[in-house]
Amino acid sequence: MKTSIATVTISGELPEKLEAIARAGFEGVEIFENDFLAFDGSPADVGKMARDLGLTITLFQPFRDFEGMPEALRGRTFDRAERKFDVMQELGTDMVLVCSNVSQAALGGIDRAAADFRELGERAAKRGLKVGYEALAWGRYVNDHRDAWEIVRRADHANVGLILDSFHSLSRKIDINSIRSIPKEKIFIVQLADAPLIDMDLLYWSRHFRNMPGEGDLPVAEFTEAVASTGYDGFFSLEIFNDQFRGGSTRKIAADGHRSLIYLADQVRRKVETPIGIEMPDRAAVTGVGFIEFATDEGGAVELVDILRALGFRKVAVHRSKKVTLYQQGDIRIVINVDPLGFANAAYAVHGTFAYAMALVVDDATQAYARALALDAEPFAEPVAEGELQLPGIREVGGGLIYLIDEKSPLGRFSEIDFEAVEQEGEDEDAGLLQVDHIAQTVAYDEMLTWLLFYTSIFETRKTPMVDIIDPSGVVRSQVIENQTGTLRITMNGAENRRTLAGHFMAEKFGAGIQHLAFSTDNIFLTAARLRAKGFKPLPISPNYYGDVEARFGLEPELTERLKAENILYDRDEQGEYFQLYSGTYGEGFFFEVVERRAYRGYGAQNAIFRIAALKKQMRPEGVPKDAV
Amino acid sequence: MKTSIATVTISGELPEKLEAIARAGFEGVEIFENDFLAFDGSPADVGKMARDLGLTITLFQPFRDFEGMPEALRGRTFDRAERKFDVMQELGTDMVLVCSNVSQAALGGIDRAAADFRELGERAAKRGLKVGYEALAWGRYVNDHRDAWEIVRRADHANVGLILDSFHSLSRKIDINSIRSIPKEKIFIVQLADAPLIDMDLLYWSRHFRNMPGEGDLPVAEFTEAVASTGYDGFFSLEIFNDQFRGGSTRKIAADGHRSLIYLADQVRRKVETPIGIEMPDRAAVTGVGFIEFATDEGGAVELVDILRALGFRKVAVHRSKKVTLYQQGDIRIVINVDPLGFANAAYAVHGTFAYAMALVVDDATQAYARALALDAEPFAEPVAEGELQLPGIREVGGGLIYLIDEKSPLGRFSEIDFEAVEQEGEDEDAGLLQVDHIAQTVAYDEMLTWLLFYTSIFETRKTPMVDIIDPSGVVRSQVIENQTGTLRITMNGAENRRTLAGHFMAEKFGAGIQHLAFSTDNIFLTAARLRAKGFKPLPISPNYYGDVEARFGLEPELTERLKAENILYDRDEQGEYFQLYSGTYGEGFFFEVVERRAYRGYGAQNAIFRIAALKKQMRPEGVPKDAV
């Protein structure tokens, strides 16, 4: 796929934008006129800057309110176009985007518009330029690509073609198959944007909510497939208006854009015969969480081990060459890394005790790693002692690590090569914890889409709709990335301000990270009793909660009493029942959760406010838990 | 007006919310159930807390999915209601809000619903409780207050009544006159909310965008007038779901809510005979800006005076007892306050050189002051020397000052009592500056509604629609408060992040404030020439801008050349033409503007990005202007 992006998509001043676009791997760039106007170099300077960075200027845009003007305004409109042609020639681009007229003065009429474009095509041809026509979803008369295409067809000029934009077509639910009959040489360029499905005014939606393909809910892959089926092999160019992107990191947003196009091309390549995608392995199916690794120091380890023991974990192995210890219960492995050398220690120095890495078990780690790299993931490797295992690793969005392990390395880094088993200390029962149920990442709200694209493009997962969690100090947006089998579930909480529990955690940790780990049990009451016996102190839940839960679900009073006695939260939906038990907070807001699912697939979103209120109460007044286990 | 507010409207935990609600002056509070559930005191504790603060609990809400349930679910629904009645009795409130059913299980049918309410009324009556029914705009069968009213009418029970909510009725554009025929005793309580007019899904709009009456675009005053016309004299209660409020200052949002109700009652009182409003003077008509006062120190004053002189100002008077100097040109008065005592000095200590105060000329300062205080404005007065004038003053939202002056104090604090004229230094021409055209306030985006309500409720002004200004580092929301005659124009720029020019200014100044002052001339070219002669250095505008302006408006090349030579920005709309000339930045981003209006009423929003790009360029790289005059 030939990739391009409009400068309006990202923040910054023009030179900064171009640099980030080139660095992200794009081949082309659309110059959004205002970016150029606000810049004080000449058009030639901009053109040189782009070329020096290896970028083709795919488009100069937009040229507005052109077609169908009454005679009194028509002459000036063409004069205006000639002035833009001057700029284009200086810039060194051969194409201008003309978007459908929104002026009150416009007259309408397909033939009138076609005649205008024929004349514009003539003028453009004299200079070796091309004119692309795009139907805005809110154009005054033309707001459908089928009408724009009819105008282009009647204009019947080699230098006049159609520009398709996924947002404009998909937001109006125009039949995408109508694209398949357009001759590929008449599609001059294709713009892409996705958006969350919120029913609202099209212009408002477009101006504020667009996002990268795959980040929203529109069928952009189907749209692209329809385009590819024509044989079109030109540029696919991102044109995204999004308030978050406009205030976000120039480089990160550009990188997301590039990743979104590679992923999109890969999806389309699998459906139609097209040269637009590059070969890469399938999205990696995750069959489980191999381990979660904490970075800490000796003192932090003592505290952490206390909690793990109260949760029923036992030390099972120690690393042969590093200060790394493995705790286990059921299929849950927790690694504590206090080695003074290496990445873990560096992470600890910045973030404090931190669940900085996790291993995902995939069918084929080599393939998964290859896919991740094809999707611009940053590889990670650390020196290992001779003979020890080197797991393929990648950096996640927040800077933490994801190791990829598979059946060829069944124990991952806990193989006998690296680790030595330790004698079991007595015959304590465990607490019945079985697996990692889900991993809760706290992230900056502005970066939620980045995380989402990262996980969904590399791993076989889907995203669930965003849910608002009401923290007493502000809204926290929550979204889940999960696979069909439930073997990978990541909840992402996007914090907008640092007064929320999530925001506090992120501020204190200097960045995004895992804020809590949920482990599964198949008998919550048994687990609760065993935890109690081990001295585990659950998070106290308000008694008022239980009165409501009983009334809401019509629970037997006996069950309510048991829930209340153990501080267990309850939820139920059409599928089944859900039980949640929380620990208090540890450090700046990290905590553990134990859940039992009875055919339930959600995450107890309704209970989140009660959990947050209880945690906040515990952290008050000094931001330090009163009752950490 | 008996004022109430739902706890869901503001942020914080329940005790904090109740305290802020009482402090803001509300008489009543609706307990939003989740706020109570997350709190770990008993219902009786909550009731006591409210009563100790002098608050009546007007409502317990919401009770969902009640009416029209099939037989299999009906029993449990009533059980659930009885449980809530228990809570209400403990809380000490006599009314519950039942919102129309949204459950897929609900059956519909007016008579079925009426029968359910009759039974619920019977049960409530046994306990001395009342049931209010509200039509949600997205109710499954009932989504119109007229239908809810028909159900209440057929339920025909003294303990069952209607709850009206302005958002639910106005969002669906239901004829408000339908309220006028409802008997007042059947309206149990009235909830109020406004919202900006954005066409979108009703539920999404309601959950995220509601705001205080007067802050949005819905005809809430007309709605309230219709309610008042029935003779209703119960509580008017704010129920607002707003993402900003949920993350905002608990006290400030509560205070805004109280102000919004007082203002609303005042509007309604003027239209219908009703006891709901209190007597207060009319909104104050502003006839001009009396002066702008800067707080600074001796060193800062030297710099500031240099700029003022380059702009053509002259020193005209000095204060008799304070280190305060007056500069003037045309009808523009700039006061420089370097007095080591008093508020100005305290403001300077925190914010640096700062336009911390302004005087607005009104018809009757005493009346305007009385209105401001009736609307909860905080009065301000500073000790003055014996015999000197004491101007009535109020604090504005950001903590700065607004003095109110009128014809009875024609020169305000520049009367001969306080000031002594100074000899004019030579015969220098001024620059032709005539008046303050507008005052540009930079504010936190989260507080824009607070500012808007402050100005529009006290002064005879209107707000214009919000406009997005694209700063290279993020979106800045801009909104104008102005009067019909143009004698008061305040532009507010709401910054969401500190990387924008506006956000940088606010971060460096430790708060909101006046970021630029625009002065009017009736001959921009003459003024530009005179400024040049005085050594004023205008903000350099990108040459690219002029190529576009010429093409866009079809300007004569000669005019374009003149604009470009003087770095003047140009705009035109249906009404007329606009010319803008900027200074460079001073300090952390303060600047001046000179404008000429030829029948033009806007603010050149299209030019803002070019101005911002030029200012940012000037401030780079050290955040300090390269070329301050």
Automatic annotation (TrEMBL), chains A, B:
UniProt source species: Rhizobium mesoamericanum STM3625
Pathway where this protein functions: Aromatic compound metabolism; 3,4-dihydroxybenzoate biosynthesis
InterPro entries documented for this protein: 4OHPhenylPyrv_dOase_N, DSD, Glyas_Bleomycin-R_OHBP_Dase, Glyas_Fos-R_dOase_dom, IolE/XylAMocC-like, VOC_core, Xyl_isomerase-like_sf, Xyl_isomerase-like_TIM-brl
Keywords annotated in UniProt: Dioxygenase, Lyase, Metal-binding, Oxidoreductase, Pyruvate
Secreted recorded as keyword: no
EC number(s) recorded for this UniProt protein: 4.2.1.118
HAMAP family per record: DSD
Highest taxon of source: Bacteria
A molecular function (GO) term: metal ion binding
Residues binding a divalent metal cation, per UniProt: 134, 165, 191, 239
Protein name as it appears in the record: 3-dehydroshikimate dehydratase
PANTHER family with a match to the protein in the record: HYDROXYPYRUVATE ISOMERASE, XYLOSE ISOMERASE-LIKE TIM BARREL DOMAIN-CONTAINING PROTEIN
Residues given in the record as Mg(2+) binding sites: 438, 516, 593
Its biological purpose: Catalyzes the conversion of 3-dehydroshikimate to protocatechuate (3,4-dihydroxybenzoate), a common intermediate of quinate and shikimate degradation pathways.
First-level EC class: lyase
